[in-house]
Amino acid sequence: MKKKSLQYIADKTGVSVSTVSRVLSGNGEKYRISQKTIAMVKLEADKIDYMPDLIAKGLRTNRTDTIGLTVPNIDNPFFANLSCIVISELKQRGYHVLLADSMELDSEERDALNMFVSRKVDGIIAVPVSASPSLYEEIAVHTPVVLIDRYFDETSLPYICTNNYIGSRMATDYLIRKGHRDLLAIEGNRRALSNRDRTGGFLDEVKSKKGISIRTRIVGNAFSVDNGYNETMAILKSGDLPDAIFAFSTTILLGSIRALREYGIRIPEEISLISFDNNGFLDFLDPAITRIEQPLTEIGRRSTEILSELIENRRKELPDPKPIQELLKPSLIVRDSC
Amino acid sequence: MKKKSLQYIADKTGVSVSTVSRVLSGNGEKYRISQKTIAMVKLEADKIDYMPDLIAKGLRTNRTDTIGLTVPNIDNPFFANLSCIVISELKQRGYHVLLADSMELDSEERDALNMFVSRKVDGIIAVPVSASPSLYEEIAVHTPVVLIDRYFDETSLPYICTNNYIGSRMATDYLIRKGHRDLLAIEGNRRALSNRDRTGGFLDEVKSKKGISIRTRIVGNAFSVDNGYNETMAILKSGDLPDAIFAFSTTILLGSIRALREYGIRIPEEISLISFDNNGFLDFLDPAITRIEQPLTEIGRRSTEILSELIENRRKELPDPKPIQELLKPSLIVRDSC
DNA sequence: GTTTTTTGCGCAATCGTTTGCGCAAAATTC
DNA sequence: GAATTTTGCGCAAACGATTGCGCAAAAAAC
């Protein structure tokens, strides 16, 4: 196969490269190219199965139809699920995806973002990892950015996240209604705002139950199986068991379950369990786990929607609209672990 | 911030664009640029935090340092896991990743591959979906391709997959050694060679046990929870239960478990279960599931290794080496479900 | 048969790099 | 001091597309 450039078609048909370009980008009419020429060019293009060089096109037009997506860890089912949704939403809007895995590392995140900029992506969707929004804010000056799942406190960057505060209150409320009065929360990464919101919701909900005396404990410091395991183990060793454990993520939950099993503690007879994050697997555990489901699909849908609006807006040289910052309400999935 | 092109630095320092380019790409010495000029240019580049336009660079050099990766469904933990490994291996080799999710659809796969070619990716790693290698073979003429996890029968395309045949024999052997004589295999997509290999391994292993009378049944037709559920349900309704069920994937396994639970059948007391694919969650099921683990890390490592060799080879205009086609041996993870 | 309008298309610049070739000035040789 | 070599760097083409401008030929108007 020869080189399939516009030049090639131009030579074959005897018209100029410009004409071929106009025809193939569908602007034949607009530039008053004759039907005969249009047909001829299209025929030739079909014959060699012409596909434009998107690199050259990108250089010239400054658009790549590519979105950079960075997540903390694709291996985590939660992010895999989220990525999946975002990718398919983006595809529907005509974008392709450059994916980076920041591995929860600031340095990797920085690399990924710089790479996105160098590649001139049209926009960026990110689950941020670092504690400061500054790099994102710098980038947002020239490239639209939408944060998902995690966000920053004082920033004008748009974000679409779960309302972790509400979710946490829902879970806590449920536990209390079930009659539990001694609650243990195992939290994740304390740097993450999402985690702090969950902690806040947990405590506020307890406080709101006036007249009911409830004991609360908060331990842990990472969204990991090990953290769940270690903290639960510590509690088990102390012998001072709570009525219920609220795991701030599925990973924490699993660690906790492992520890409880080692001690032969029965769920939910001896202790109740509730968790954040949804995951199909949780229905196959015994007992199936009651949990707070984050509105992933909605996050994926909204974020891509916002991002493409931002991109369109910039293209029209309009000023950015007021940043859209939404916290979406999660839902309670009741199963058998409480 | 102004435009950060070579031109800008050239203007600032008073040298030509070519000189700036040579200095910044580290070829200053080679082109005998004076130390003074080199220092000056570098200083200016640092000052504006210069980052090359990778699009322009790609157009000129015909390399994008990008690899296209397509998988059937990123949402499936198996592929999420695999992608994660491939992505991080590629990053270590200096490549970035354009990710496409083919959703097990031929049409999506075709789109993705064309997109990769249009973007001039340096190479492609793919879990193929379609039944025919023809499109891949066309592409491989100009862009290196390595298949993973699934492969084609009669092709010279390189691939790195699990030896499903061996894995299936290992699982079957284990079941038989455990004393089971009535085996049910629930298979996945029959179009997939990997599935056919598993079926073959299952039957051959049984045949190899001369002198032992073993009953075998093979049902099912998809790598899905529903398929596992439906087929198991059918068996339960017939009342003709096997001693053991061999699920050809985790998804099938889960469906099967759901059905068994509905009927209150105890595992492993009344029936044994074994599965293909590894997944951390399987250890948290009750009982933990005995399974065949695919060497994902090895697949990720080898495939990126092969691919980058192919790319280097092409760059040196050497002929392609004999295609590397490897089937890696899986391993048995013994737990409590048999 | 001019003049004006419309039709149909090409010229050439441009996007930001890379790179082969070559030229002028400085340094060295004789 | 002329010839030669070395040093240091710039010119301009190229990658493959897009697009503003303008020009020639054909058609229409008078």
Describe the fold and architecture.
Two copies of one chain form a homodimer. Chain A is an alpha/beta fold. Chain A contains twelve helices and twelve strands. In chain A, the strands form two sheets. Chain A has a six-stranded parallel sheet with strand order 2-1-3-4-5-11, with helices on both faces. In chain A, helix 1 crosses helix 2 and helix 8 (164-177) packs parallel to helix 9 (193-208). The longest helix of chain A has 20 residues, at 296-315. The radius of gyration of chain A is 26 Å and the shape is elongated. Strand 2 (96-101) of chain A pairs antiparallel with strand 2 (96-101) of chain B. The first copy, chain A, binds a DNA duplex (30 and 30 nucleotides) through helix 2 and helix 4.
Going across the major beta sheet of chain A, what is the strand order? 2-1-3-4-5-11
**Form type of chain A:** elongated
Which secondary-structure class do the elements of chain A indicate? alpha/beta
Helix fraction of chain A by DSSP (H/I, runs of at least 4): 40-55%
CATH architecture of the largest domain in chain A: 3-Layer(aba) Sandwich
Fraction of residues in β-strands of chain A? 15-25%
CATH topology of the largest domain in chain A: Rossmann fold
Tell me the major beta sheet of chain A.
6 strands, parallel
**Which chains make the largest contact?**
A-B, 46 and 46 residues
Spell out the helices and strands of chain A N to C. HHHHEHEHEHEEHEHEHEHEEHEE
- Low confidence ranges of chain A: none
Tally of alpha and pi helices of chain A: 12
**Separation of termini of chain A?**
65 Å
Total beta strand runs of chain A: 12
| CATH class category name of the largest domain in chain A | Alpha Beta
